[in-house]
Amino acid sequence: MTLILAALAIAAPAVWPTLIENAVFIASIVLMGALFLACFLVPWERLPVNAHLVIPILDLLVIGLARNGAVPAVAGLGVLAIFPVIWLSASGSFVKTSILLSFFGPLLIGLPSLLQKFPRISPSDIATASLLPLMMLAVSLAIRFASANIRVQRQRLERKDAELRELLIESRNRERLLKTVLDTIDVGIVAVDAGGQNVLVNGQQKDFQRTASPAASGPVPEESQQLMFGQDKVTPLPADKRPIRRAVAGETFADYLVWIGEGPARRAVSTAARIIKNDDGGSSGAVVVYSDVTGLVEALAAKEELISNVSHEFRSPLMSVLGNVDLVLDEADGLSSTGVHRLEVVQRNAERLLSLVSDLLVSASTVLAVHPRRTDLAGLIETTIGSAQAQADATNVSLSADVPVPLWAHADPLRIAQALDNLVSNAIKYSPDGGAVTVRANSNDRWVQLQVQDTGMGISEEESARIFTRFFRTQAARKAEIPGVGLGLSITKTIVERHGGKISCTSTPGAGTTFTVILPVEGAAAL
Q1: 264 within 8 A of 288, measured Cβ to Cβ
Q2: Residue ranges in 395-509 assigned as alpha helix (H)
Q3: Is 480's pLDDT higher than 70?
Q4: If residue 288 lies in a helix (H) or strand (E), which one and from where to where?
Q5: Is 488 exposed, middle or buried (0-12, 13-18, 19+ CB in 10 A)?
Q6: Is the pLDDT of residue 113 over 80?
Q7: Maximum separation of any 2 CA atoms in the chain, in Å
Q8: How many other CB atoms are found less than 10 A from the CB of residue 410?
Q9: CB of 326 within 8 A of CB of 347?
């Protein structure tokens, strides 16, 4: 407003000479200059909060003087009232007063010109004099409503900002808590994105990475460059077989054993991976967990070595006992029937001990040799049933088979026969009060399914989950004093898995048990 009035004053001598002679107009220019200087010179910060609003109020007076002093040479200066109206309305203070000033201020500015026409005032003159006040009132109300809306929006934004700050503080606290927890546990954890880049690595995992690093110092290399070996501790793992690479490729796995590092610092690590799903159900990364199981692996190796050594030590004297008993029984003509009976008891128990020693040796073996070839399983099943018939007759158990002929599979006949013998023998043994044992089979172009079903004592769901664990025996078997040490099913599971197959157990206490074996038809694994 100052610039406009200053320009008007500068142009007046050349364009409107009469303005220079108008005392009212000159007074408005002087007062405007004084107000302009007051804006800079008065220490408003020391005065009450709304003291500066005196400036727009006095601006209305300046506009009134300028407008009425410049008429009729310059018309329309009353429109300058929009500046103080905006100032007063946008201040947010003295709402009612500012609204009244927005209407009556412009009205008073135009009132002198209206009164000069009295008593010849026409409706048109009244409308013209009322238009500017009404416009300024509309501007004031619009600014008031806009300001109120802005204040509401600002308050909402401030509340949102406060909530976001609280969430940020809480998020940081949780992040610190999570980091502390992850660095406290003795399990290595690494989270990667879909591209395989590390998102989170805890302290224990950093220790594992340093152990697997080829250099004692320097930056930690990527997984593909780390010292990582298979279960034989010698063969380096290919890049696509390493845990993080497998996880990024979308695999989910558990108990995947690898060896990291070299020399005395070498560690056995059990790894597991889970995929991170995004909203679309796709993979957005993975979490891989590393657990140091060196002590456990070494303990198991020592246990297996002990079992193997003890079994070997048992095997030699047992073979000697059996050999000598066989020689004596071959010349049993001079022995009494009681002596022969006692020797047969010795022979029977020695053979049982030899079978147990053989199972222990197989169980302790880290590598169970399997040599699969195209084999007719129907013949193996028939041989197994024939061998078990005497055992079944002794316990009043009926044996039957429902097997198509021929039944081809990619299998080692010696090992699969051993597995079938274990399953059928167990089915008969755990049907002590008689019953029925049935062997069924079916196949397609990819796999062969074998089932050994009995109607015996059955086992609970909890026990069926542990039935393939070495040395595990059910409570019912121990109570019934059924002989055994719990190795047969463990060996059977190992044989089946070495063929690329799978074995499972379903059972109902008192209603029998069904073991299902799946084997590949061709050389590739069926599952």
Answers
A1: no
A2: 413-429, 461-464, 475-479, 488-498
A3: no
A4: strand 283-292
A5: buried
A6: no
A7: 165
A8: 21
A9: yes
CB proximity list for 18: less than 8 A, separation 6 or greater: 73
Which candidate, 386, 369, 389, 370, places its Cα nearest to that of 378?
386
422 Cβ partners below 8 Å, 6+ apart?
488, 489, 491, 492
Cα 234 from Cα 248, distance rounded (Å): 25
Residue 186: φ, ψ to 5°? -95, 30
β-strands 397-402, 435-443 pairing: parallel
- Structural tokens at position 83: 């500046």
Q: Specify the DSSP class assigned to residue 374.
A: E
Indicate the SS3 state at residue 92: coil
229-236, long-range: CB < 8 A, 24+ apart: 229/258, 229/259, 229/260, 230/258, 230/259, 231/257, 231/258, 231/259, 233/259, 233/266
- Which tokens sit at 73? 């040479």
Q: Which residues pair with 439 in a beta bridge?
A: 401, 452
**How far is 448 from 411, CA to CA, in rounded Å?**
11
Contact 223, 245 (CB under 8 A): yes
pLDDT, position 525: 42
- As beta bridge partners, residue 292 has 269
Residues 321-342: tens digit of each pLDDT: 778 777 777 777 777 788 877 8
Full-model pTM = 0.46
Cis peptide bond N-terminal to 72, omega within 30: yes
* Tens-place pLDDT, residues 433-451: 778 899 999 988 888 999 9
Dist CA 24 CA 16 (whole Å): 15
- Residue written as token pair 């000069």: 116
Burial of 281 (0-12, 13-18, 19+ CB in 10 A): exposed
Cis peptide preceding 406, ω within 30 of 0: yes
226: buried, middle or exposed (CB in 10 Å: 19+, 13-18, 0-12)? buried
Query: How far is Cα 207 from Cα 226, in angstroms, rounded to an integer?
Result: 13
In the chain, the amino acid numbered 518 is I
Amino acid at 214: P
